[in-house]
Design goal:
Elements (H helix, E strand, L loop, with lengths): L5 H15 L3 H10 L2 H5 L4 E6 L2 E7 L4 E6 L6 H16 L3 E6 H6 L1 H11 L5
Parallel strand pairs: 3-4
Antiparallel strand pairs: 1-2, 2-3
Length: 123
């Protein structure tokens, strides 16, 4: 049996906590994205561990990560952390789509259309 590393266990525990404590915006987006399985045959995962990071949402088959960015992400510390995370995802072949929480609140349909476009379902 392969032993899990401490880092792996911490990332999984953090993902579980984030799934339990999703923000209102994350819940709204999740409700829309999970319907993609029936509409387009695409499975989305929420608060999913990918390497050392936890992505807000990911379409693993399309290598698309969706990050919902609130105020923290625009602080110097948040920007530095996000730049490092996004570079790591890119190195693993993932594209990162960032959606600002205020954009989601103002135009949920537009955000969903952007996701559809990024998935290659609309041209």
């Amino acid at each position: 049996m392969v032993r899990q590393t401490t880092h792996f266990k911490k990332t999984n525990a953090r993902a579980k906590k984030l799934r339990r404590d999703m923000t209102n915006g994350e819940w709204r987006l999740w409700l829309e994205l999970r319907a993609f399985r029936n509409r387009y045959g695409l499975h989305v995962r929420r608060q999913v561990p990918i390497g050392p990071y936890v992505a807000d949402f990911a379409f693993m088959s399309k290598k698309l990560v969706i990050e919902l960015d609130g105020e923290f992400h625009f602080t110097p510390e948040g920007l530095k952390r996000d730049t490092s995370r996004d570079a790591w995802f890119a190195g693993e072949g993932f594209r990162v789509l960032k959606i600002k929480t205020n954009e989601l609140e103002d135009d949920l349909e537009g955000c969903i259309n952007t996701v559809i476009y990024e998935l290659g379902l609309m041209h």
